[in-house]
Amino acid sequence: MKPQDTPIAVVGAGIMGAGIAQVAAQAGHAVRLFDARDGAAADAKARLATTLQGLVAKGRLTADAADATLARIEPVGQLSALAGSAVVVEAIVEDLAAKRSLFRELEALLPEGAILATNTSSISVTAIANGLQHPGRLIGMHFFNPVPLMKLVEVVSGLQTEPAVAASIFELSKTWGKVPVHAKSTPGFIVNRIARPYYAEALALLLEQATEPAVIDACLRGAGFRMGPCELMDLIGHDTNLAVTKSVYEANFFDKRFGPSLVQAEMVAGGLLGRKSGRGFYAYPAGAPALPAPDPAMAHAAVQAAREVTVHGSGALAEWLAERATAALAPQGFGPARLLTSAWTGLEVDGVRLMLTSGLTAAEWVAQSGITDVAVFDRPVHTEPGTLAYAVAPAASAAWQAQAAGWLQALGFAPQRVADTPGLVVARTLAMLVNEAADAVLQGVCDEAGADAAMKLGVNYPAGPFEWLARWSASEVVALLQALDGCYRGERYRVSPWLQRCARAERTAAAPQNRAP
Ligand code: NAD
């Protein structure tokens, strides 16, 4: 579709519609913009003129390009003025009846080959198409806010959407400078579904008083996320976040896996909505309080006290720990031993253990091993180590409690002690994101590459769920989820059959008879 041959109509000139009109016009299309409220389309064009002037002033756009973009946008006062458009993108109020009635009117106006696209973020595309004469030409074109900056477009097919229509919108999105990802119309599509555990695991930790919001946020920032879940919920607004959670929960027939949290419901009931109300998890404008800085003396004392250190485990993380431990011990004049065949990853220091979380708590390891001085630490996933959660077995000696933190510092982390909960902070969150993405793939909502692109571009995740999985292992993720399930029961932590299959395939490949000679 050449832009000059493809006039675009945008209906709804609010935040999203104005952004969609802008990107279409910048890509060279003639754009007609309609809004039910008188003057709203012209206002949106005037706002865009100011935005474009700002970009010209900053040298990011030429004056000619800004003028050409504006000249291509025509605010219209009647829906009938949209006749002759090749594609209509709807961005009106999020209401099924309003969207259905609009598309019925549009269908009567537009040529038969025209594509009807909806920017709905939560309504079933299949449901919006129901009642149309040609439901096959209706498709979801889900942009993210702010539209000119966010690269992702979820191209959402309903039950009756024709594959050729999905393919056209996919290609059109690319010419608008976007990264399209195919999705099947299911609650939350890709991003809003897979992202649920990012909030839910933080809320679950807070519900059981495992730690403070500032610690959770620091740990996930330490894992490479731009914002921690608590500060992000404060930014989105707890009312909005709770509403999305409830809508995904209801749309999944109240599957407990998607259940909202009492922590958030209580905040909404009390008007603690986040930044917009001045208070959420944090008070604003101050925001999150700073965490106490690590004390270098603790690292020094822990390393000096060590007589014999063994790095357990094999694989990239164990190698990395070995490198760090070697550097930390160098001034002592000895290095760590290695036990590559160990069943766990971490450090053994004079017979006591600092173990990478597998999902088992420190207390469970004590019960298994008979060793009382056990600490577990969270999964480091970022190349630049930052804040890392750890937990110490309840009966551990005071000396080991201090030394465990000291050793984590010596390895380069800023340790934060949390309650002895399965999977700590980052590992349980990532495992649940992977699990949700695995179910989305199992159900044909998207493919693995689509899920990764969607999460990186739609919500700025530092990596996609399948990229995390590739650096982890399906068996380990399954074991961690099973540990969570064993602790909490209920449906939330049930393991995706897709992940179970991957774990089985890993075990089969690792069996001695199947190993390459
Ligand atoms: P908005 O309130 O800023 O704008 C909606 C506009 O639609 C308003 O100007 C309103 O006058 C107009 N309108 C309402 N009913 C209409 C009708 N029947 N015909 C023509 N115009 C009508 O809303 P928004 O945030 O731009 O959201 C629009 C759509 O995009 C919704 O479906 C929303 O779920 C979806 N969406 C929003 C976001 C977001 O972050 N805001 C992100 C993705 C998708």
Condensed summary:
With 517 residues, the protein is α/β, with parallel strands linked by helices.
What does this entry look like structurally?
The chain has an eight-stranded mixed β-sheet with strand order 3-2-1-4-5-6-7-8, sandwiched between helices. A seven-stranded mixed β-sheet has the order 10-9-11-12-13-14-15, with helices on both faces. The protein has three domains: 3-185, 3-Layer(aba) Sandwich (Rossmann fold); 192-277, N-(1-d-carboxylethyl)-l-norvaline Dehydrogenase, domain 2, CATH 1.10.1040.50; 296-417, Transcription Regulator spoIIAA. It has 517 residues and is α/β, with parallel strands linked by helices. It is built from 21 helices and 15 strands. The model has no long low-confidence stretch (mean pLDDT 96). It is 46% helix and 13% strand. Nicotinamide-adenine-dinucleotide (NAD) is lined by residues 11-17, 35-37, 40, 91-94, 98, 102, 119-121, 143, 145.
Task: Give the secondary structure arrangement, pairings included.
Elements: E1 8-11, H1 15-26, E2 31-34, H2 40-57, H3 63-72, E3 73-76, E4 87-90, H4 96-109, E5 115-118, H5 125-129, E6 138-143, E7 152-157, H6 163-175, E8 179-184, H7 191-194, H8 196-207, H9 213-222, H10 229-236, H11 238-251, H12 262-269, H13 296-305, E9 309-312, H14 316-329, E10 337-339, E11 346-349, E12 352-356, H15 362-369, E13 374-377, E14 387-392, H16 398-410, E15 414-417, H17 426-442, H18 448-458, H19 465-471, H20 474-488, H21 497-510
Parallel strand pairs: 1-2, 1-4, 2-3, 4-5, 5-6, 7-8, 9-10, 12-13, 14-15
Antiparallel strand pairs: 6-7, 9-11, 11-12, 13-14
Helix pairs in contact: 8-17, 10-11, 13-16, 17-19, 17-20, 20-21
The chain binds nicotinamide-adenine-dinucleotide.
